[in-house]
Amino acid sequence: MVYPPGKHPPDHQFDWAHGRVLEALQVVLITRGRGWLETRALGRKRIEAGTAFVLVPKIWHRYRPDLEVGWEESWIEVQGPVVNKLLRNGGFLPAAAIRPVGAAAGIETALEAVHALARRAGPGFDPALAAGAFGVLAAWEKSRQVPAVRSRMLRALTEAERHFAEHLDEPVNVEALARRLGVAYSHFRRAFKAHTGFAPWQYVLQLRLSQVRRLLVSSEMTLDDAAARLGFSSAFHLSAAFKQAYGIAPDRWRRQFVAQAGVAVRP
User: Is residue 265 packed enough to be buried (19+ CB in 10 Å), middle (13-18) or exposed (0-12)?
Assistant: First the structure.
């Protein structure tokens, strides 16, 4: 595996052997898989799915996915007077640059919103895009304020999020998973909802629907194929869940997205 895939701009290019130093702040969310992050302040740390980290300007760092498992990442880069003020006031400390983030913090949703805006944005300053970026920073701060969970349960919750992300096509058996993780089923259900904002089965549904949206905009996959790939019993089941979550049928959502983004697709 070559990481990062493809070429970055010269001032952003890096490899694991050399690392890099950035002039702007980046927020990176790992949604699936696992890997490593290393900085001068933190040393080398294991990164699991459901973890976000910030790359602070002028701090050497390097990161990469596990070569066997890989990962999926979502990120933005921000800079300007507001970010500089936050950095000066200790909003992004290099020694506290990694956080487990549940769905309740809203980082993934905020990143998705920014990326959707960026696809439509023209050259020059875009107020909506700037507001979206501040939404990501607010979600990062919110993740710090989520009440701490006991360490044993936190490990179980982190492992459960990773398990759900890596087994989206499998039935959800929360009781069996809690037993395997060594925690009480009833306590696990309550802690999981407090940690993520969703009951376990609702969390898996959100993951599946989020992946459906990615597939709809990045491929010509049919709803039947997406349903089979992501654990829905049928295309009808997928469509009903999608419409209930987003208020629009998936085929119509795909057509609207393509029209707004100005992307050409084959008939």
Answer: exposed
Residue 226 neighbours by CB distance under 10 Å: 22
Contact assessment for residue 142 and residue 106, using Cβ atoms and an 8 Å cutoff: yes
What span, in angstroms and rounded, lies between the C-alpha atoms of 214 and 43?
Answer: 33
- As a whole number of angstroms, the distance between CA 108 and CA 116 comes to 12
61 close to 26: Cβ distance less than 8 angstroms: no
How far apart are the C-alpha atoms of 247 and 253, rounded to whole Å? 9
Please provide the distance, in angstroms rounded to a whole number, between the alpha carbons at the two ends of the chain. Answer: 34
Residue written as tokens 């398990």? 163
pTM over 0.70: no
And the tokens for 157? Answer: 């919750």
Judge contact between 29 and 115, C-beta under 8 A: no
Q: Which two tokens stand for residue 176?
A: 């069996």
Question: How many Cα neighbours within 13 Å face the side chain of 189?
Answer: 10
Structural domains in the chain, sorted by start: 25-145 (2.60.120.280), 151-261 (1.10.10.60)
The helix (run of H) or strand (run of E) holding residue 88 is helix 81-88
- pLDDT tens digits, one per residue of 200-222: 999 999 999 988 988 888 888 89
Element (H, E) at 76: strand 71-78
- Name which of 6-10, 18-22, 45-49, 249-253 the model is least confident about: 6-10
Task: Please tell me the distance from the alpha carbon of residue 180 to that of residue 50, in angstroms, as a whole number.
Answer: 20
